[in-house]
Design goal:
Layout: E1 25-32, H1 38-41, E2 51-52, E3 59-68, E4 71-79, E5 81-88, E6 95-96, E7 101-102, E8 105-106, E9 109-110, E10 115-117, E11 127-129, E12 133-134, E13 140-141, E14 146-147, E15 153-154, E16 160-162, E17 172-174, E18 178-179, E19 185-186, E20 197-200, E21 207-210, E22 214-217, E23 220-223, E24 234-239, E25 242-247, E26 251-253, E27 258-260, E28 276-282, E29 285-290, E30 294-295, E31 304-305, E32 319-322, E33 328-331, E34 337-338, E35 343-344, H2 347-354, H3 361-377, E36 381-386, H4 397-403, E37 405-407, H5 412-415, E38 419-421, E39 427-430, E40 435-438, E41 441-455, E42 458-463, H6 475-478, H7 484-490, H8 495-502, E43 516-521, H9 523-527, H10 533-540, H11 542-550, E44 553-554, H12 561-565, E45 569-571, E46 577-582, E47 588-590, E48 595-604, E49 607-612, E50 631-638, E51 656-668, E52 679-692, E53 699-700, E54 705-706, E55 719-721, E56 731-733, E57 737-738, E58 744-745, E59 750-751, E60 757-758, E61 785-786, E62 792-796, E63 803-807, E64 814-815, E65 818-819
Helix pairs in contact: 2-3, 3-4, 10-11
Length: 820
């Protein structure tokens, strides 16, 4: 019996080698340099291969960390934007993997156009075939008896095999002796066909023909390898009458379709992943190579980092380190800032470095004697360092140095056209041409000669001369032998605060051993605190006054202004927090309302005093005044009326409280609802309590503000305040008084406590206030008259033109050199 081998028409396989596999894309990548001090940013460079597109100090949109003294600061800084054009490796469509190998194809068609290749750099080259197709390149029909481009035709061979598959035409290879289009007719001429023949033709015209892939040798058909039997990267062989396809070394597949083997696609090709990269050299061939910046005599066993640092890579002030990417970097210590090449120390260290020609020798002496701790371990500051070759005789360096420091970091462009406060409390006005004046002495002009010199704790500007035109505040240190209590008692600018201390009913530790930091409000600040709060605390709430005073004291250390500037908050003796803020113009503000420091660093034997323009109110005593007197109103309501046996299952309305007693004999709802039968039931008693907002006596409006004159003496006791939460705070004056606060006598010629005393103003307007003393209003005298009562005129005393102001009922007499 003849055996017919199931065959398909073989079409040569191609990798499309003539097609480019790489479709790389060019793109621009952006890189931001490490954030650093803005004064250092102007010299920052981009990494090799990048181009800087920002100018000057770059982008002020980042922050950097630096250690100043014992504290770590997160300060606003600058960085630059760098760009680089890079070529990104991309595979063309129908190529896959890092090496862009071709996807399996058939007859030059990727996945035979009957599937989708998992292509791209992350793909694995697998063909995902459409429904009805199979094979490595989707070159077969899933139904082995189907044929045609879409595998949608069915073979009809009764006694033979079909030329099936997407490239088949459905022709039947009839098994002898059958012939015909469907192999359903016996042909006498094919009865003697040997093995590997098929009956070709019909009826008497049928002949024996070798099957495809076989060649006639004599009377037999022998298997041969013909072009297209196997993939071009496969070896064809004939065994036991059958041919076999085997992919060449370095390729994989079924022999009819062979694809290159890329060992790099899995497990980095066996190369150590942390130090090497797998290089594809050809099908099945890879080598291990060291990552950029690494080296090894045998990369397959791993590589080690090689130093990219040379003597010229970094400045001597920095440490060169090679990163994992092989790029050298210049590293600064935690106490320094850098520009990517060199590192910069403190203001004091930088002044010494800058003294190349000795022009700053005197400035070094000034900063070392006056404020070395500040410019070495505190900040950040903006230092105005003068050209000064020799030290200044007869000056207080500690006081003079403060004129040369500004809190915060200020580049020269930020100073132009602005008023800035110095560390000493003086106001500087900077002009637009790098010159500046002090508002206390506007005639002396200073010039910035060199600007924006970076330091780890600030910025340095070199100026043309020292600031010696302002009086030194040496008195602040001359009191160092006295206690805080003694200093406050002897100076009238503290007398409002001292009055509160004397009348608070408790002893404060101002004459104790310390250390203390005391924030003393100015007299004006306490005078502005005139809503009745002070009077109320003095008379009815001394415990609140004591808490208020303790909130102005810090008992853990004597904090000078530079120490305050480096802190964000302190805990006072009132066990409350005072927040500290530095403004852009160099001022220190305390508390929620931002009370500014006016006079700083008044040194005492047991601490330091700072004068502030504001009163610090701890939250623990707010509100100070008893302004709210809300009223609780209650009423009794009843719950639902039900059968008394069901009473336990009912509840009082939301927001009410159930009482012990309950109502009996109420009319319960009938069951069913429209029944005419009345049922006597029970209901719970419930208590509803509501709070009605109300102001205390002497307060008015939704916020319960105190009436004019204070809540204890509304309308200065000369009228009735329209108080209460619905009131507007206006005064209804008693007869004889007028004004918004009933503080003026309604009769223009009266004065006195009860507005019943006659005014003695003769030729002017009477000061008709209750406490006006019956004199004339200042500046109201008619022309030619003067004096408290406008009752004096300028009278000539002699012919030489000597005048004297005399009463209108008197005359001037001249005797010798005297007038009378």
């Amino acid at each position: 019996m003849l055996y017919l081998l199931i065959l398909g028409i073989l079409v040569p396989y191609s990798f499309q080698q003539e097609t480019h596999s790489r479709c790389d894309e060019h793109s621009i990548i952006q890189y931001s340099t490490p954030c650093t001090a803005c004064a250092a940013a102007s010299t920052v460079t981009c990494p090799r291969g990048f181009r800087k597109i920002t100018t000057d100090t770059g982008n002020a949109n980042c922050s950097y960390i630096v250690q100043i003294g014992q504290r770590t600061f997160n300060l606003p800084g600058c960085s630059h934007t760098c760009i680089k054009t890079v070529t990104e490796r991309r595979c063309c469509p129908n190529f896959w993997g890092p090496r862009c190998l071709p996807c399996p194809s058939w007859s030059g068609k990727a996945c035979n156009w009957h599937g989708t290749c998992l292509d791209g750099p992350t793909g694995n080259g697998t063909c995902v075939c459409k429904n009805g197709f199979s094979g490595l390149a989707c070159q077969e029909c899933t139904n082995k008896n189907a044929y045609g481009e879409h595998c949608n035709s069915e073979c009809s061979c009764a006694n033979g095999d079909c030329n099936s598959g997407p490239d088949g035409d459905g022709e039947c290879y009839c098994q002898p002796p059958f012939s015909g289009p469907k192999c359903d007719t016996v042909s006498e001429s094919c009865k003697n066909c040997t093995d590997y023949h098929y009956c070709k033709g019909e009826n008497a015209g049928a002949i024996c023909e070798c099957l495809p892939g076989f060649k006639r040798i004599g009377r037999i058909c022998a298997r041969i390898c013909v072009p297209g039997s196997c993939d071009k990267n496969a070896e064809c062989s004939v065994k036991a009458g059958r041919f076999e396809c085997k992919c060449h070394l370095g390729y994989e597949g079924d022999g009819k379709v062979c694809v290159p083997v890329d060992h790099c696609a899995q497990n980095n090709g066996g190369c150590p992943a942390n130090s090497t990269i797998c290089d594809y050299k050809g099908p099945g061939q890879v080598v291990c190579s060291c990552l950029n910046g690494m080296e090894s005599s045998n990369p397959s066993t791993g590589c080690v980092m090689k130093s990219a640092c040379t003597d010229s890579t970094c400045h001597i002030s920095s440490l060169c380190q090679t990163g994992q990417d092989g790029i050298p970097r210049c590293i600064c210590s935690a106490q320094q800032v850098g520009d990517g090449y060199r590192c910069f120390g403190t203001i004091m260290e930088r002044i010494v470095e800058l003294n190349h020609a000795g022009d700053l020798t005197g400035a070094i002496h000034l900063f070392r004697k006056g404020c070395e701790l500040s410019v070495s371990q505190r900040g950040p500051f903006t230092a105005l360092v003068p050209f000064l070759r020799f030290s200044l005789p007869g000056v207080s360096e500690s006081s003079l140095c403060k004129h040369h420091l500004i809190l915060g970091q200020h580049l020269s462009d930020e100073l132009k056209g602005n008023d800035i406060w110095t560390y000493s409390g003086e106001t500087i006005r900077f002009k637009t041409d790098k010159t500046f004046i002090f508002m206390r002495d506007p005639d002396t002009l200073f010039t910035i000669k060199e600007s924006n010199i970076v330091a780890s704790n600030g910025i340095i500007h070199i100026i043309d001369k020292p600031i010696t035109n302002l009086p030194s505040d040496a008195s602040n240190t001359q009191l160092a032998s006295q206690t805080i209590g003694d200093i406050l008692a002897e100076d009238t600018k503290f007398n409002r605060f001292v009055s509160l201390l004397d009348n608070c009913g408790a002893s404060m530790p101002l004459r104790g051993p310390g250390p203390l930091t005391v924030f003393v409000p100015t007299n004006n600040a306490i005078d502005r605190f005139r809503d009745g709060s002070v009077l109320y605390m003095l008379s009815d709430a001394r415990h609140k006054l004591q808490e208020l005073l303790k909130h102005h004291m810090f008992s853990e250390a004597a904090l000078t202004v530079d120490q305050l500037a480096s802190m964000s908050a302190i805990n006072t003796m009132a066990k409350q927090v005072i927040n500290i803020k530095i403004t852009n113009d160099g001022r220190i503000l305390l508390g929620e309302k931002g009370a500014p420091l006016e006079t700083k660093d008044i040194i005492a034997s047991n601490g330091v005093i700072h004068l502030i323009d504001g009163v610090l109110v701890p939250s623990s005593i707010v509100p100070i005044l008893p302004h709210r007197c809300d009223v609780n109103e209650s009423k009794i309501i009843q719950g639902p009326c039900v059968r008394c046996s069901y009473l336990f299952s009912t509840e009082c309305p939301s927001g009410s409280t159930e009482l012990d007693a309950h109502l009996k004999g109420c009319e319960a709802s009938p069951v069913p609802p429209f029944s005419a039968t009345k049922i006597m039931g029970c209901a719970k008693y419930c208590k509803v309590t509501k709070t009605r907002p109300e102001c205390c006596k002497g307060f008015y409006g939704p916020d319960c503000k105190p009436c004019i004159g204070g809540f204890t003496h509304p309308c200065y006791d000369k009228g009735i305040c329209l108080d209460g939460i619905q009131g507007n705070g206006s005064c209804q004056c008693v007869p004889g008084f007028t004004g918004i606060a009933c503080h003026i006598c309604s009769d223009l010629n009266k004065h006195g406590e009860n507005c019943d005393e006659d005014c003695h103003c003769v030729h002017g307007e009477c000061d008709n206030r209750p406490h006006g003393q019956g004199i004339c209003r200042r500046g109201s005298c008619l022309e030619g008259y003067s004096g408290d009562h406008c009752d004096k005129t300028a009278t000539p005393c002699n012919s030489d033109g000597v005048f004297e102001h005399c009463h209108i009922n008197a005359y001037c007499s001249y005797s010798g050199s005297n007038t009378m």
